[in-house]
Each structure stands twice: as C-alpha cells, then as structure tokens.
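FW: tagging you since you asked about this chain on Friday. Here's the raw sequence from the shared folder, copied in full. Didn't touch anything.
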Amino acid sequence: MKLTQIVKRAAGHYTARTTAGTFTITRIGRTWRLVGRRITAAYRTLRAAVAALKAHRPTPLGGMPTRLTKVIARTHQAARTMPKALKYRCLSGDIAVAVDAGTLIRTGDMLDRLGADDLKDGYQAWYGRHVKKAYIAANGHPPVMVWAQHRTTGRWIHVAAYQPLDRALFVGLTTYKQTRHLVQADFMEVA
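HL: got it, structure written out here
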C-alpha cells in the first residue's frame, strides 16, 4: 500500500493517509495503537505501526482465502531457504541474462574494457553517478537496474545497466575528473 502522508495532530496522535483510506495512530501509555478500516492493532513503537500500515494490503471482500494464504506462506518459506545468488538473480530476471550475454553492461564493465579497473570503489561509484545523470538528461527516464555483487565486498547492490555503446557512458567519462584521462586516444583504442 502506498503511504501518501502522515500528519501529526497532537502529541502521540497521528493521521496516516493511504490509497485505501485514512488511519489513526495514537499512543496509549507505552503502546501505539493503529486504528482504521479493517485493521486494529497495538505496537511497541510508532515505527512498527507505520511499517505495519505499509505492509497492510486491503482486500475488498474481507480476508484472503485460506488456499491463497497457504500459497503465499509456501512462497515465503521457499524464498527464505534459497541461496542469495539465486534470489537476486530471480529479482533481476531478463536484465541479468542480458548483462551476462553482454547486450547490457554496467559502468564497472566499461571501466574494465578501458583498463581502468584499478580505480578506487568510490571513484567508480562517482563515475556511475555521472553516467546515470547523463542518461537521464538524454532519455528522460532512469536506466534499467540489475542486482550485482560488489567487486570487493561481495554485497549485493542495485546498479544501472546500459547499452554497450550508449552515449551516456562516454559523456560520464568526460564529465568526471577522475576518468577524463581515459578519453584520450590510446585508452579509447582498448575499448
């Protein structure tokens, strides 16, 4: 559910407006009470009440059928037991397949092609920001995103993917001061 706004009415009294209607969150003693259409519950903190409100999915005809609830529970159980790599691969879907095939590349792949993979992680991240800014300026929308493992930490991060000859990749090289030297002729021959 999309939470559009939370307004503080008084100390310990908030009104939350969502796409499903208006809810109130009030503090009674040490507990926070969430009251609204088809939901009434108590929580220890305001943050927990807001999180529950965001997770609440209204159903027009009452509760979910038991059969659907069991399917959802089995899906969640399978997601908890699968390896991280498979989970993030499934989240990326066709985009991950395109990155593996080379039809889409990440900014780190571009720097590898130019022989600049020895740049610090912070510099590579700033290069990626410059490329994304150039892409949005040229196309009016953000690039497609893919989940990938960070090259040094191994953590899963959400990165942008581009066409191999996208103009934004080269604009990013020229606009970022740490990668300007890569635009020179001897480096461009490597690409």
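FW: Strands lie at 3-10, 13-18, 21-28, 31-36, 39-43, 144-149, 156-161.
HL: agreed, and Residues 25 and 34 are 5 Å apart (CA to CA).
FW: great, closing this out.
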